Amino acid sequence: MDASPVVLAGRVLLPCGAERDCLCRLSQADEVYVVIGDAAATVGSRVICHVDGLGVIEASVTAASRGSLRLSVEGSPAHRVRLAMRLAWHRARLDGREDQRGAMRVIPLDPTVDVTLADGTAVAARIADLSATGAALETALRPPVDTALTVGRRRARVVRHTDAGVAVRFVLPLRPQDVSAGIRL
Question: Which of 51, 138, 147, 177 has the fewest CB atoms within 10 Å, counting from its CB?
Fold first, then answer.
């Protein structure tokens, strides 16, 4: 049974170097259908899509017609699993199930960040998603709930453990206008 498609806005970088606004329709984590005004790409060429709410998707063109591209997603199995989880989240919202979190989430273009404990212990982490009030971090470091730490330059506290790491709440929230894919903590 095919899952219901999720349609999200985005931008696509074409092989010619041009960047265009587009609509991306995803039913599964390994294929994207892109609606674009000028589909200047040929079968077999590589493109990069930045899809709002999903992040960056590298893909190769499997079919091209005037105004649309069908893309085969490239990436590791872990990347596909993360993409499938994000698609499931969007489907849940489309089905009327509300997100329990109170703030809009983004996935940074550069998700790498250093996490430092009060004792100076530092490890690299990956930001799975981020909002004005906190972030989900993929990291081997799993300090106890309520532990104070620094995420990049932002002070935070651990609020829960996740399968891949921890979720933190910032001591001082970010300004909503600063919460974008280009953010660096």
Answer: 177
Among candidate residues 169, 177, 165, the one with its CA nearest the CA of residue 151: 169
DSSP string, 134-173: EEEEE-S--PPTT-EEEETTEEEEEEEE-SSEEEEEESSP
Give the bridge partners for 122, in sequence order: 116
pLDDT at 182 over 80: yes
Tell me the C-alpha distance between 6 and 126, whole Å.
25
Rounded to whole angstroms, how far apart are CA atoms 19 and 13? 4
Give the integer Cα–Cα distance in Å for 100 and 105: 12
CA angle 10, 19, 180 (to 5 degrees): 45
**Hey, what are 184's tokens?**
């660096």
**What stretches of the chain adopt beta strand conformation (E)?**
6-13, 19-28, 31-35, 46-51, 55-65, 68-73, 112-117, 122-130, 134-138, 148-151, 154-161, 165-170
Place of tokens 């997100």: 99
Tokens standing for 158?
């651990």
* CA–CA dist 39, 63 (Å, integer): 10
Considering the entire predicted model, what is its pTM? Answer: 0.51
pLDDT at 59 (0 to 100): 92
Q: Which of 112, 140, 136 is nearest to 126 (CA)?
A: 112
